[in-house]
Write a structure and sequence with these properties.
The chain has 20 helices and eleven strands. By secondary structure, the protein is α/β, with parallel strands linked by helices. Bound molecules: iron/sulfur cluster. The site of iron/sulfur cluster has 11 residues, from loops.
Length: 466
């Protein structure tokens, strides 16, 4: 450090001064927020959010439910969790990330991903029916130094939100140490939950404060144990109790199939997981990838429309933040893949457009992340998905299968697993049929419920062809 910088307060001193001012503020902010009455929080949120989301009722409801959920968390969670969460989510992911993300956007035709999904391992201690991870070679695993470097690269691109998937991520030996090392990031972790109540993991997660576990459930005990194995439901409840006691923010994730679609959006189901302490609930439509892909397990187009209405209804009434990336297409802006919003790094380092679109051209072992995101493959995908009309049928794998076929024909990506090309070969006729029916169901909904509002806030318009 030069003499000048010492006298004027060099970078290290400025950083520590910032820290000294910031830390108490981060402790105080959640407390001040928690002290506001819920009715005032809701009123203020509606007033502030209406100009931006007034045209889209589910958008406004989502923001209100998110803020009210955070308000409830602020009243009950440990100060360490709240301070770390506030810093990482609001300051780092939304503010500090700004210049780096702008630079990506400038080079990348206006696109900059907002989050990265990474699967450190495909090992799992369960064998669930239809799990997309089942076909990966279990020995393949990202090494700790590769993950560390990947997280550094992600921050360089302004990505502070990381979803950790798998396999069962908590089987990776060094995961918690990596969370500790990158304590300026938020890690949302998809887990089967069976390891969380053991070996003091829940307490460690509370101490870390930057991890939000989402535990996979299929319904209640019968449905969960049927797919995941006997006794799994009991261990999930044990994990939720441990997380609740330690003050960790957590949620559930659920996969609607043709058999449990209605159950998963019932009042009874949602109330049960609200009572367990879930802050959020994410729905992931069953996708015909992985072990024995089965199109007949996908919820029908009519079931998807039922779920869309139920999700909107539940969001207004329940004390939980709910999202469904297929049914909430209008809210999230259609398909998120290919670095439009996110991308997936699999356990062999292959970078896939989406966890379900398992075709990769590039690998983090050969190329920098920045070059992969800006590659012709990802640019082409972003171009195709953002020209889509009607985001209520957003998915290039199941809703508009021709898009996935075009991507594969043009760039010849490798399927990530043996048999991974089934979505574009053996399953193609059934997916075509499904997509045609979905269009018949969803286009009238889009036209009736959304089109009048198009010019106010959304770039999507209805189309009769594709
Ligand atoms: S490809 Fe399909 S599953 Fe993946 S983000 Fe897009 S809509 Fe969702």
């Amino acid at each position: 450090m030069s003499a000048d910088s010492t006298m004027q307060g060099g970078p290290a001193q400025n950083a520590s001064l910032q820290q000294r001012l910031l830390d108490p503020a981060l402790q105080l902010l959640p407390k001040a927020f928690a002290s506001l009455p819920p009715s005032a929080v809701e009123r203020i949120t509606r007033r502030l959010a209406t100009p931006r989301f007034g045209y889209l009722p589910e958008g406004l409801d989502f923001i209100v439910s998110l803020v009210m959920g955070l308000h409830r968390q602020a009243r009950t969670k440990s100060p360490q969790v709240l301070a770390t969460f506030t810093r990482n989510l609001f300051l780092n992911a939304f503010v500090k990330s700004g210049p780096a993300r702008q630079a990506v956007r400038d080079r990348n035709h206006g696109f900059a991903p907002e989050l990265m999904v990474v699967s450190p391992t495909m090992r799992c201690n369960l064998k669930c029916t239809g799990c997309y991870s089942a076909n990966y070679a279990t020995a393949d695993e990202l090494k700790t130094n590769e993950l560390d470097d990947l997280l550094m690269q992600a921050k360089g691109l302004g990505l502070y939100l990381v979803v950790v998937s798998g396999g069962e991520p908590f089987l990776h030996d060094d995961l918690l140490d990596l969370f500790a090392k990158h304590n300026d990031m938020v890690f949302m972790t998809y887990t089967n939950g069976t390891l969380l109540a053991r070996n003091g993991r829940a307490r460690r997660l509370a101490q870390l404060g930057n991890v939000l576990p989402c535990i996979s459930v299929e319904g209640f005990e019968k449905e969960t144990d049927e797919r995941r194995g006997k006794g799994v439901f009991a261990r999930i409840l044990e994990a939720m109790a441990a997380l609740r006691e330690e003050g960790v923010i957590f949620g559930f994730s659920a996969t609607p199939t043709r058999h449990n679609n209605e159950l998963l959006v019932s009042d009874e189901f949602v109330d049960f997981y609200v009572d367990q302490g879930c802050f959020l609930g994410w729905y992931f439509n069953y996708m015909p990838v992985g072990r024995n892909p089965d199109v007949s397990l996908m919820p029908t187009p009519e079931q998807r429309e039922y779920r869309r209405r139920r999700v909107q209804n539940l969001r207004k009434r329940k004390k939980i933040v709910i999202a469904d990336f297929w049914c909430d297409g209008a809210l999230v802006g259609g398909c998120l893949s290919g670095g439009n919003v996110y991308f997936h790094v699999n356990s062999r380092g292959g970078v896939e457009p989406c966890v379900f679109n398992q075709f990769s051209v590039d690998n983090i072992r050969d190329k920098r992340l920045v070059d992969i995101i800006e590659s012709p493959y990802f640019s082409y995908i972003r171009g195709r998905i953002t020209e889509m009309e009607n985001p209520l049928r957003p998915c290039p794998i199941i809703d508009r299968p021709q898009i996935l076929r075009d991507c594969v024909a043009r760039f010849h990506p490798k399927p990530s697993q043996e048999g991974g090309e089934a979505t574009i070969t053996t399953l193609a006729p059934e997916l075509n049929k499904y997509a045609r029916r979905l269009q018949q169901v969803m286009d009238p909904v889009w036209e009736k419920e959304y089109c009048g509002r198009c010019e106010v806030g959304t770039e999507f318009h209805i189309s009769r062809e594709d």
